[in-house]
Amino acid sequence: MRLPFRRRNDARGQSLSPIAVLLTLYSVALSPVTAISFTPAPATNLDLKDLGRVALAGDFSGISLFQFEEQNERPFKTNGSQSLLARMPNGIFGPVVTTDATILTMCTFVEGNGKEDGVIIGGNFTSLQLPTHGSESPNYKESKAIALFNPNTSSIETLSGLEGQVYAVLCDRDTNSVYVGGNFVGKDSRNAIAWVGGQGWTDLPFRGFNGPVNSITKASNGHIIYGGSFTGLGNATAPTKRDGQVINLSSATISAGSSTTREGFSDPKNIVCSTSGTDGTGKTWLLQENSPGFWQATFGYGFRPTKLRLYNTHLDGAGTKTWRFTALPINGIMNMTYVDPVTNKNATCTSECPLSNNKTTKFQDFHFVNVIGMNEFRIDISDYYGSGGGLNGIELFGEDIFSYAINDFNEPTCANLEFKSSSTATGPWKVTPSHQSTAEYLTAQISAPITNTSAQVVFSPDIRESGYYSVNLYTPGCLQDDTCASRGQVHLTGHMTADPTKSDPVDKTLYQTNNFDKYDQIYYGMVDASSSSFRPQITLTPLAGQNLANITLVAQSIDFTLINSTGGLNGLFEYTPGRPVNVSDFTASAVNRLGSSFSGKSAVNALATSGDTIFVGGNFTSPSADHVVALNTKDSTNKTLDGGLNGEVKSMILDGTTLYVGGSFNSTSEKSVDGLNNVAAYDTEKNTWSPLGAGVNGNVMRVVGLTMNITGSTPEFVVSVNGDFDELNAFDKNPAVSVTGFGIWVPSQKNWVQNLDLQLESIDGVLSTSILDRSGNGSLYAGSLISSTLGVRDIAGFGDRLSDFPIKIQAPTKSSSSSSLAKRDGSVSDSSLQGVVTGIFDQENKRNLTILGGHFTATGSGSAINNLVIMDGKNNNEVSGLGDGISQDSTVMALAVHNEILFAGGNITGTVNGNEVKALVTYNLANKSFNPQPPSLTGGNGTVSSIAVRDNTDDVYVGGSFTQAGSLDCPGVCFFSTSSSQWQQAGQNLGGTVNTLLWVDENLLLAGGNLTINNIASTYLATYNPKTLVWDAYPDAGQLPGPVDVLTAGTSDNKQIWVSGTASNGSVYLMKSEKDDGSSWHSVGQTLQPGTKIRGLQVFQLNESHDKHPLIDDKAALMLTGHIVLPDFGSASGVLFDGANFRPFALTTNSGNTPGSLSAVFSEKQNFFGKDGKHLPLVFVVLIGLGISLALMLLIVVAGLILDRMRKKREGYVPAPTSMYDRGSGIQRIPPHELLEGLSKSRSGAPQM
After folding, report:
1. Tell me, what's the pLDDT at 531?
2. In what order do the strands lie in the sheet with 155-158?
3. Measuring CA to CA, how many Å separate 885 from each of 865, 866, 918, 1091?
4. Which of 993, 1142, 1123, 1146 is nearest to 1068 (CA)?
């Protein structure tokens, strides 16, 4: 158990060591990060040169290639936790530190010599965690509210000493200090303190405020300006009546040493709740005669006592003479003060405190010199009167006003208090051990639906003095009880005063996802003392409507702290560093005077400084300005900013001469400007307000700056807007855009990113604060974001990089299902399919068409096009569809083009040329009109899942869930002859549902699904011979563990195949036929995790070889598309398999913070196994090789002869005579001896015989 932290003037905080870290960040948007490094992922080496155009289709709003190991496609967190973020070289936001709650503020600490020493981060978190990779276990480091991060060493320095939340930090180079504001306690300060380099935490001269500090800025004159919800300087104070809270000993575990064996006097519990002062059986506890001993109490909670009351025994002359108090578990002997009953003077004692044996002294009170936390104590009796020691009663008191969820920890009934602290718990609560927390607590496991009546705890404190209180809820951490995954939010309500006009009601929602213990202020203001007509109470319940199947609710305690205040302030305070604070003359400061002009209960939420001007925003009104105002600190004049705004300002950011504000307003105070819906911009030079588009449809909580590449390679400043809204309002020609509380305004384009027709990155989530371009060292961000390198919906081009298509697909409506991961029911007929499901490039007869099918809405020629679009590349990318005859609820799942006819199959219904169509529709691409339609496919689910054209014929085969084609019995597979314009049976012995078709060659068709042969044999993969019209089970198809959902060729001749499906146990399998006849199968094993859905398979060639593996050629890889869940990584929408290892290839995001997915990869040319996808038979390869060898040998011979002739000619050789006459005459002219003599002479230097 952890002891209660120290909060009052008698509790000293620890001094911290000086900052000793170096920090050099270089993470400019879309630029490489040097200090914060990200690990490059291995190159995919896909060889796309023979494929032409390649497209990635699916259900997504953003897509990225997997280029860095830190990338993932997890949705942004909605449980309140955030991260410190930097940008990877490809623009993706990556976490460098993760917290268990919100990061609200940051600043860069720079020493006076200009050396940057660190980044201070503050918020309401309790722990920090460095990113983990693979199967690494997370390493949580407890760090409450504030910390220092060094990205050079990936180290976190915890600046321990604060309890609560930090809302604002200001790093001041001139004073070598970090000014910290918020709602916290630390050292002897409350809500404001300084962290000084080389010294650690330092109390400011004024010791803080009586309310939270929301913002801090530095004026041009060097003064520090605080803004918040305070009315004066102030700190915690003791109640007027000291030691008023009774610590409950009756619920403690009592033990003793050397107790007497005398019946009725041996039980150490006798003296608990014994306050009569009368000795007797069951009232007195005695030690053994002539023996020292001890009395000990152990508690299930921590407390801080201020007074001990002891009742001595006088039974038979016995009694305690000297004793000592030891606090446990720290094992500290406590110093005490008391009034000597003999001299009536104050005295002190430590190890031998005296206890009077005067019978007229009913009890003695001993006050603790040092007020510290403990959960156990022991009283050691060292000397005694008479024959032995003992006690007749004991009471313990404190000043901390708590109400515990476990009622046994509240004040005891035997104290006979009129309004003792108490609690009432209803619901499935159970007591949980304290672990590392300060007290045991209640835990409730609640199943959906979650309502505010599922469980509740009503806290009733013992308030004896009316005044201003800080009311704080204590929440135990979730790591200690392993409930982090199921923790949610709680709702707190209550009333603090009998007259509701004197205080605001308590209405607070808090997350309980903190890793370590925390406390949150849930109320500050007037609290009435308890009376017979009114009692302050707080009710804790789960927040109703949470989207969790099960939730863990915890309840520990609520603390009421009385606050003393100087008064005289109203949300603003000016502090001059190095000077004492004159509390008697606050009006000497123009800043303080400005705050005093605000109405009561005002709050300053945001401050910004530009030159001599300070901009103040918040919830206030004044005679001259409402909610936002400016002050010139040089001449002390106020600037009204056109009278201000007509609602609260919650956040501000200043960029040059433009002040961006967000909050809850819709115009200026005088309603002179339209369109200022919750967000607006103020030009500080022109003194005019302007809208950001037409604003948003809900409150804005934060406006934060960031940078993006909009139209060039240089990042430019943009403004992110976060809050409780779900739509960017329509303006000019821009329609309303559905969002999830996040938008980005681009000042240079005067529009939202979501409206720009540019190739931009996609960003969504929550951005709470940022440090932009820290003096050239890069930008840092804080929040919970998902991002993609390309923000595009449902279709993207893939080549050297990702690119968009010249088509605008709309985001699904709020009511549309965005899940694309539902399990098939035996076919692909899911109504849950969203986005682009399939696509083809059509270049027949010199056409240049891109055809997309699925379940989506696109924009073309000013009208909406549903579920199938045709984009004409030869006609300026004109977009068209099939018209209104096809139902908007249809889903196109398969496409094929044969000659001029487009075949589109799926879950299709509608009317064409007055006739009903179902499952399949055809369209003439040449004349852009419908053909006479094939009779509808009916029975089963009435869907087509796959279309395959038989080569060198006019037969178009379709597979799916149907039993008839018109009146023709045609279960599972049927083919339409375009030459005869009629359906024909594909054999008569197949039944079931077909998910996928593949032609091995023109005489062998494969069908995968949940099938039967001859109405007897079940199989998941079948073959069809169009010559014999017979279906058979694929060889060894019994090895497949479930229906085949997708299949693809594994080799160029299509004789080896890859298949994937869902096994009977619900797992996803991936297998390959090992032999050309399919007689053996090999599974990759159970390496894909639950939640995986494979929608497509395709083999790709590689530019570089990988390690050799039996399943795949070393220059090829298998791509899986869908929603693939990999071990130690999570989900990826595209994955490459090299025969042994899976690696992410493509990651997607989706609107609504839902998972994205890829359904298919399609290309212009089908040369996935090399040029034309064909190889010569081996015999021809051998013959060609022999021919080439012979030709090379002939060339060598001819070249040798030519070289020999050239050599002879160069050396003077002439052809020898060939006629008999020449030979004879020559012999007659040269005698033999002369010839030999000549040879001898011509070899000078040769050996002589």
Report:
1. 94
2. 103-110, 116-123, 146-150, 155-158
3. 11, 11, 12, 36
4. 1123
SS3 state of residue 992? strand
Predicted local confidence at residue 672, as pLDDT:
85
CA 566 – CA 53 distance, rounded (Å): 73
Cβ atoms of 1035 and 1078 within 8 Å: the answer is yes
The structure's pTM equals 0.83
Dist. CA 921–CA 902, nearest whole Å: 8
> Radius of gyration over alpha carbons of the chain, in Å?
42
Structure tokens at 398: 């404190």
In the DSSP assignment, the letter for residue 259 is: B
At 1006 the pLDDT is: 95
Q: Residue 265 corresponds to which tokens in the numbers above?
A: 């006097």
Phi/psi region, residue 641 (left: phi>0; alpha: psi -120 to 50; beta: rest), is left
Nearest partner of 893 among 946, 840, 965, judged by Cα? 946
- What is the DSSP annotation of 860-892? ETTEEEEEEEEEETTTTTEEE---TTB-TT-EE
**Which residues is 71 bridged to in the sheet?**
none
Bridge partners of 664, per DSSP, are 648
Give the pLDDT score at 1244: 40
Instruction: State the Cα–Cα distance between residues 1114 and 1138, nearest whole angstrom.
Output: 8
Q: Bridge-partner residues for 245, per DSSP?
A: 398
Helices (H) and strands (E) in the chain — how many of each?
4, 90
Q: Tell me, what's the pLDDT at 368?
A: 97
Separation of alpha carbons 86 and 781, rounded Å: 6
Other CB atoms within a 10 A radius of the CB of residue 729 amount to 21
Cα distance between residue 125 and residue 423, in whole Å = 28
DSSP conformation letters of 340-364: -TTT--EEEESSSEE----TT---E
Question: Would you give the distance in Å from CA 899 to the centre of its chain?
Answer: 49
Tell me, rounded to whole angstroms, the distance of Cα 64 from its chain centroid: 17
Distances (CA, A) of 898 to 854, 894, 935, 943, 973: 20, 13, 18, 20, 18
Tokens read off for 552: 């863990």
- Strand 1057-1062's sheet: what is its strand order? 1044-1049, 1057-1062, 1068-1073, 1081-1083
DSSP 27: -
As to burial, measured by CB atoms within 10 angstroms (0-12 exposed, 13-18 middle, 19+ buried), residue 1176 is exposed
How buried is residue 372: exposed, middle or buried, by Cβ count under 10 Å (0-12/13-18/19+)?
Answer: middle
d(CA 1101, CA 1098): 10
Burial tier of 1053 (Cβ tally within 10 Å: 0-12, 13-18, 19+)? middle
Query: Phi, psi (5° rounding) for residue 1199?
Result: -65, -35
pLDDT the model gives residue 1196: 84
Reference 148, options 168, 170, 128, 173; nearest CA is: 128
Q: How far apart are CA 40 and CA 33, in angstroms?
A: 12
Q: What stretches in the chain show pLDDT beneath 70?
A: 1-35, 112-116, 133-135, 774-777, 813-832, 861-862, 1075-1079, 1171-1182, 1207-1249
* Neighbouring residues of 561: CB distance < 8 A, sequence distance ≥ 6: 7, 236, 400, 401, 469, 470, 471, 472
User: CA 167, 172, 178, 179: dihedral to nearest 10 degrees?
Assistant: -50
Instruction: Find, among 205, 179, 182, 206, the residue nearest to 193 by Cα.
Output: 179
> Do 1133 and 1122 contact (CB within 8 A), yes or no?
yes
Residue 1082: Cβ-neighbour burial (10 angstroms; 0-12, 13-18, 19+) = middle
What stretches of 1056-1156 adopt beta strand conformation (E)?
Answer: 1057-1062, 1068-1073, 1081-1083, 1093-1101, 1116-1126, 1130-1137, 1142-1149
Res 1174: pLDDT: 47
Among 391, 386, 299, 316, CA closest to 353? 391
Report pLDDT for 2: 63
Residue type, 513: T
Q: Which pLDDT belongs to residue 377? A: 97
